[in-house]
Amino acid sequence: MTTLDGDTPELLTLGTATLYEASGLDCFLDAAFRPAWEGAQVVGRAVPVSAQIGDNLALHHGIEAAGPGDVLVVDAGGAPFGYWGEVMAVAAQARGIRGLVIDGGVRDTQQLALLGFPAFSTAISIRGTVKQWPGTVGLPISLRGRVVRHGDIIVADRDGIVALPAVEYDRVLDASRARSAKEVSFMDRLRSGETTLDVYDFRRLGSPIRAEVNP
Question: Are 154 and 72 in contact (CB under 8 A)?
Answer without folding.
Answer: no
